[in-house]
Design brief:
The complex is a heterodimer of chains A (162) and B (160). Chain A is mainly β and 162 residues long. Chain A has two helices and twelve strands. Chain A has one domain. Chain A has a five-stranded antiparallel sheet with strand order 10-9-6-11-12, with no helix packed on it. In chain A, strands 4-3-5 form a three-stranded antiparallel sheet, with helices on one face. Chain B has 160 residues and is of the alpha+beta class. Chain B has one domain (33-158). The chains are: A mainly beta (162), B alpha+beta (160). The interface between A and B is large, with 39 and 36 residues.
Chain lengths: 162, 160
């Protein structure tokens, strides 16, 4: 049995945790349609309630307002909208899906789409705090290659003059 | 089980389902610490499993730890333990999830090495499932290329 004392300058071992955890799930008929249309056609779709005639976002089998089966009255929504409110968090964020650090965080805004009653939370392209105050009308800019993430396939909303 | 799954897959084919492929990837690094580092370096350089010993409590800890869990005394006495041990308990994991170090099915076991008083959690491989038993004798199989990780022990194989 040997007895040894720890060395003065010991080597330290680093433990790396660097394996991605992959998972998949069926997104179902309604949400699946959103992902599919965004990926293949770069369009945002919602279904319309047969009773209140309002758009359901995110699309669902049942209208939350009327509690009736919503059906498949699909509508392609406008990709233009109006900024309702925004916040500019100057802080580096992690993308939890890919572990990348988001180098250029964009201001986050609540955007009211031109279709009634649909509000989205997304990024704005405009990063100048002074100009941000005047941003009213915006339009979606899609990523060149989507990943089938629905709203996540939109890069940000760009300011438009109207 | 496989038939049920196949049946479900067949049914899904007719539906217009969209499969969401997700990935969670948060790479991170931490230090194994002074004691942990020494334990891993011994595995890497000398293919030797080292333990720390508490004389007062008559404990030999594998993997090595710096503080005795009974008397909270600092452990500075290092002793080598055998690479042969006894399976205390085990479980068979047939599920694949991409973060496991081996292809499933994986047998995870707690192995009490000769000379140690605590069990080491590791994998058991190269054994027939019928012969798998608590109390069986296993021996550490070291990896050819060792990097200073607990996986420098590839797995424990049954002693012939």
């Amino acid at each position: 049995m040997t007895t040894e004392k720890a060395e003065k300058k010991p080597e330290l071992i680093k433990v790396d945790i660097a394996r991605p955890r992959t998972y998949k799930w069926s997104s179902g008929k309604y949400l699946g349609r959103v992902y599919k249309e965004a990926l293949e056609n770069k369009k945002l779709v919602a279904n319309r309630c047969p009773k209140c005639k309002e758009l359901i976002w995110q699309p669902a089998a049942v209208c939350g307002r009327c509690n009736v089966e919503a059906g498949e009255d699909w509508v392609v929504m406008s990709d233009k909208g109006t900024v309702v409110q925004y916040t500019y968090l100057v802080f580096p964020l992690w993308d939890p899906h890919y572990g990348d650090r988001l180098a250029n965080p964009y201001p986050t805004a609540t955007i009211k789409l031109d279709d009634d009653g649909v509000f989205l939370v997304h990024f704005l392209e405009e990063r100048d705090p002074e100009k941000l105050k005047n941003v009213k009308r915006v339009q979606a800019v899609w990523k060149e290659e989507g990943r089938g993430r629905g709203l996540g396939d939109i890069l940000y909303f760009r300011t438009i003059d109207e | 089980m496989a038939e049920i799954m196949q049946d479900r897959v067949e049914k899904l084919k007719d539906l217009d389902v969209f499969v969401y492929h997700g990935k969670i990837f948060i790479p991170n690094t931490y230090t194994a610490g002074l004691t942990g580092s020494r334990f891993l370096i011994e595995l890497r350089d000398n293919k030797r499993i080292m333990a720390t010993r508490c004389q007062a409590c008559e404990q030999v800890y594998v993997p090595a730890r710096s503080v005795c869990k009974y008397c909270y005394g600092q452990l500075t006495e290092w002793v080598p333990v055998s690479d042969v041990g006894t399976v205390e308990t085990y479980t068979v994991d047939g599920h694949s999830n991409g973060v496991q170090p081996m292809d499933p099915p994986i047998i995870y076991g707690i192995i009490k090495l000769d000379g140690a008083t605590t069990g080491l959690v590791h994998m058991i491989s190269g054994v027939d499932f019928e012969k798998l038993a608590i109390g069986m004798r296993v021996k550490a199989v070291f990896a050819e290329k060792r990097v200073g990780s607990i996986l420098d022990i590839k797995y424990f194989a049954p002693l012939a």
